[in-house]
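Hi again,

Forgot to attach this to my earlier email, sorry! This is the prediction with zinc ion bound. I've pasted everything inline since the attachment limit keeps bouncing my files.
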Amino acid sequence: MSKEVLEILEERTQKLNRVLGSINGSEKTPTIIAFGGIHGNEYAGIAAIKRVFERIENESIPFQGNFYGVTGNVQALTEKVRFVNKDLNRVWNNETLLENKSNPQDIEDFEQIEVYNTIKDILQSNEGPFYFLDIHTTSCHTDPFITISDSINNREFSSNFKVPIVLGIEEFLEGPLLTYINEFGHVALGFEAGQHDDPVSIDNAEAFLWSALLAANCVDKNAFDGTENLQGSFTCKRKMKCFYEIKYKYTIKEDEEFSIIGYYENFQRIRKNEKIAFSNKKVVRANQSGKIFMPLYQKKGDDGFFIVSRISSFWLLLSKFVRSFKMHALLQIFPGVRASKDVDYALVVNPRTARFLATKIFHLFGYRKKIFREDKWYFIRRDRKISRFI
Ligand SMILES: [Zn+2]
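Structure tokens for the complex follow:
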């Protein structure tokens, strides 16, 4: 990286508060890293992280392990916009930038390098297990929910929270931060706390953080008042603790005029063929029944809406079973499926000979992400060995 770029980075780091707070407690493990404001119009995470640090300090709450709060897109937060040049939560597949092979071009490139270096420092100077928490808010009104990549360690940790858990998001979004972190085997949960400007979203985000610290045994529930009812303190209309899977995403194209018809709450039931939105004044209908998920009510962003459906407990148990016994090797006995020569977590699938194998089978065995390259599908396994970094 050029001297000029290093100087700019240095100057920005001094000016901006990248690390919101840090605690090194009585034990060496675990280490919790919470992000707020990866999107600059979402302040709830920042406010909640600050509240938790303040309370730990003011009440001298005994703490085991380490806890860090990290600011996301500082510049976009200052300008109160989702992002300045590009979405900081869609850039984590840009390996050339992270490996110092290209120079930063715009604001978000600088933001990404700083966030990356901060994570790297934390990983190198602390003991695992590491739990990454990324707090967001949505443009629509919603009860809080969690999004995860579909790995068994993510499922287990997210089961500590009485909110809906949506898995499989990594198949529909390119380059989110948590998917990138998951590739190194760490637990990584996204928490959507509610609507952007609703003050309740901060309360929800705070309840989520305390619940995470309790679940990771960083704080003892007897150590301070108010934790008994913490799980109940998420402001949910419906208490739904179940797993959902993303079935469909409507992507808004460049220059497309898109608006949702009427008002949908998150997780509201929709029927097949229901009129959902206008795209360039033409009606967009639901291609399947299910629940509408994250309908877009803001200008920036290109995910129009998603459709999710509930996953049965049987499927969850079965997939846990086949993954625990590392039965994924079995998939290679099917014609047209072979192990990748380069990495041990990918399968190469010939779409012609393996046509009969449904994507659902790959999901069951823990292969979520699909990449199409040179006439072949590459299925990437979500459960990974822990490697410190990056
Ligand atoms: Zn967000």
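The chain has a mean pLDDT of 86. The longest strand covers residues 130-138.

That should be everything now.

G.
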